[in-house]
Structures are given as C-alpha cells and as structure tokens.
Amino acid sequence: MNSKKHAIIIGGGPAGLTAAYELLTQSDEYEVTVLEASDMFGGISKTVAYHGNRMDMGGHRFFSKAQEVNDWWEKMLPLQGAPSYDDIKLKREIPLNAGGPDPEKTDETMLIRRRVSRIYFDGKFYDYPISLKPQTFKNMGFKNTMKCGFSYLGAMLHKLPEDNLENFYINSFGRQLYSMFFEYYTENLWGRHPSEIDASWGAQRTKGLSIGGIIKDVFGKLFNVKNREVNTSLIEEFKYPKLGPGQLWEVTAKKIEELGGIIIKNAEVTELKKTGSLITSAKYTKNGQENIINGDVFVSSMPIKDLVGGMNDVPAEPARIAEGLPYRDYMTLGVLVDKLALKNLTDMTTIGDIVPDCWVYVQDRNVKMGRFQIYNNWSPYLVKDIENTVWVGLEYFCNDTDEFWNQSEEEFAALGIEEMIKIGLIDSKARVLDTHMEKVKKAYPAYFDTYSDIDTLIDYLNTIDNLYCVGRNGQHRYNNLDHSMMTSFEAVKCILSGSTDKSAIWNVNTEKEYHEEGK
C-alpha cells in the first residue's frame, strides 16, 4: 500500500515547476502531479519555435540577487564556459565559467548577455532607465532638458501623496519626464491612466529607482564604490538560456519526470473541492473529458480569480474580491525581416550592425505597439539565419474582450507591419519575410479595481491549511522570474515543516529595496 502523500501542483510555469522539483528532491514523502493547462512549459516564460526561429514571450532576463536562485539556475543550465557564436564573430570578451559547456557544441547552457534596453521616443533612443549621458541631453534639447530639471526639483520640494501610480512617478522623476516617458506607456500597458493604478505596482517594479537613484549609481561607478546597492533596472549583464527561457522549464520538467513526478499537459483545472479548511480534490478537463484528482496538499500558480471562482463555499467578500481582480492580456507578432531601418549609433558591435537592444519601450501615441524585442540580441541561437535576417517581436497589451484581441493573424500582421513602418523600424513591407502571432491570456496581474482589497482575500486563502499560492498569477503580484521561484521555495519549506504560517510565501518581493548580495 502506498503511504505517500499526494501533492497537486497547478501550473507548469516557473513557480509550479520549481515547487514540484523542490518537493521531489527534498523529500520522499510525496508523490507529485503537475497539471498544466497548455501543451508547453513556462507560462509567459515559454519559448515558441516557429520556422526555425524562437520567440521569448515578453522578454526574460535571468538576473537575481538571491544566491539560492542563481545556484538553482546553474544546476539546471550551467553557465557557458566558451564563447557563443556572436561572441566569436565579434571578438567580444565576456566572463566565462571555467569548465562550463561550449554553446557551439551543446544546447544545455546559460549565456551571459549584455543588457541593452532603451526607450524609443520621438524617433530617438533614450537609455532605460533614463541616464545622465550627453546623448540624453542632446536628444532632449536644451529647452526640454531645463524643463525636466526644474520639474524634478519641483517634485523634490513638493512631494505628492503616493496614493496612485501617477504621483509615485512624478515624485520619482518629475512631471515632465513622467509625461514624456511613463504616462502613455503605462496607460497603453494597463488600459488605465496611471492615476487609477495603485502606487504599489511602481514601488514593487522600480524598487526605489528615481533620478536620485540614477545619480547615486553614476557616482558609485565613478568612484568605484564597493558593495553598493544596484537597482535591478540598472544591471548591465544578465544570464539567458541558449534557446530562450522556455528551455529552462523544459529541462526542469524532464528532471521532474526522471524523479518520478507526473506531468499532465492540456489539463485545465476548473474546480477545487473544499471540505472545512482543506482542499480535497481538483477537477480538470483534458481532451473534453472531466477528471478528478485527489490530493493532500495543493500548490497553485493559477490566477487567483480562477482559483477562488472554482471553489465551493467561498464567503461573499473574498468571492467578490477575487471575481473583480483585473488582468492584462498579451499579444505578440514575430516579424522576420532582412534589414532594419534603425541605425546603430552606439559603440556596441552587433552582427549585421543592427541596434544592440534586447527590447525597446515604444513611447509613441500614434501606435498601439508597447514594446519590441530584437531576438538576435537575446541569443544568436534564437534566429535561424542570424547573418542575413533580423527576428523582431512586436508586443501589444489588451483585454481578451477587446476587438483587438479577436483579430485574425493576417489582420494583426498587417497592423504590426504598418506600425513598424510608421515609427521607422523598417522602410517597406517588402522587408518582411515571415510573421507569426502568439497570445497569452492573463499575462499581467493588474493593480486596480478590487486589488485594493487583496489583503482580505489573502487572509481568507490562508485559512485553507493545505493550499499554497505561488508565482505571479498565483499571488496576483507582478513578480520577476526569480521572485516567482522564491515563493515556491518558501511554500515547500512550509509544506515539509508542517507550518500553517504562510507569511513567508506572501512576503517574497514586498521589500522596498532589493539588495545586492555576494559582491
């Protein structure tokens, strides 16, 4: 007779797979079953292959100040020990891991990549975050630079109450810079004006980044200050799986199965049966058939809205809050072109002399495009013919109830290509060799509507003793990849210790500062 307990993991993204792997490696007391709604691993961190090219949904830097996370990544995909294709071609020196794998000979490795991310505004590139380089002031012009400077001074002298995201940004950057670089992009991303969004989103994502923080970082570099705190938006290098972020989760899933874990794909959880303070079973659909699976513990990375909506006997107030939680959906168009019209005016060399950016924030009120990625710069191995083509990802944000979401692939491609021409990414439709559309529902948990009452909902979820909510959608928190993983580390500690105090799980990524460690 099998005396093992059964752990049900809902979701095969970063948080779900991390929890499954940690449970299997830290204890022999549990059988583990992962229920993944789609046929791919990684959630929004998946990698989509199309005609020999690969797409990263949303762009994922692998950077963490948590040593536990870095060690975990290294275990799954060791850091490169030899140059990658573009490093060799460009004679570029990068830090190498002695004895690490050669990316020219094996796929299972992490690359070290340059972080280049800029804002495209009024036909010019600005560093992101805004830097104090001469090019910034040249792009702005004297008059606008003075406006920004005095605007920031005014914000320092007259702080606004940080009761919404607009005030948060104005306090951090001044009204002029906010208007130029944050207002429209934020409204495009969330479908709401920043004045309607909770300020905690800004505090969580920027971790105290401001003009003052940028100045502090500049002087820290100038005077070689040791052990200085580095904002995550200011890092200059990051790790990246050779074949995109989804590769890490494919490797992890394989290891889970080797350890005896069961993974069921295309298994969409629709209901959870609750008896008293325990979840006893989950219902999921696969191939049109309903299935019920019993469990002793449940780790959920599914959207809280759907989780609570599928439970029985939920009190009215938590049910109302969960039902009202908002999300933003994501659409991306992969566009293969023979050449970009953008000129590389930096001192960074690239194959084909394309601009060196990994991704670019588009601040143009004349287009719906929010960002674009240049996959060539993430990894040379994402592009089938990196010498002769550029593989670009155009990113759009919407709701699945919008007419925009329901466009055909042909309509979406036509719009994307038109906008590429409008903002000067390409000079003609003739440059386009191929396109591919991808969509992700509930990609971004949003911080408005009933989000203001989420603490009440969390208190209710914590009364369910064997339920552990992890990850971005599992906690309705705009976590980075490493923080999503860390929620699962904490959940597994809770499960194995038998603790019913889940505060450590919910407290991941709630600190205002994200301190650099081990330097």
What labels describe this entry?
34% helix; alpha/beta; FAD/NAD(P)-binding domain; five-stranded parallel beta sheet; 519 residues; disordered C terminus
Structural overview:
With 519 residues, the chain is an alpha/beta fold. It folds into 4 domains: 5-44 and 246-325 and 449-506, FAD/NAD(P)-binding domain (3-Layer(bba) Sandwich); 78-115 and 237-241, no CATH class; 124-232; 327-445, Protoporphyrinogen oxidase, mitochondrial, domain 2 (Polyamine Oxidase, Chain A, domain 2). The chain is built from 18 helices and 19 strands. Strands 7-6-15-16-17-14-18 form a 7-stranded mixed β-sheet. A 5-stranded parallel β-sheet has the order 9-2-1-13-19. A 3-stranded antiparallel β-sheet has the order 10-11-12. Strand 10 (268-275) and strand 11 (278-286) form a beta hairpin. Helix 12 (316-324) packs across helix 15 (454-461). The radius of gyration is 23 Å and the shape is globular. The N and C termini lie far apart (51 Å).
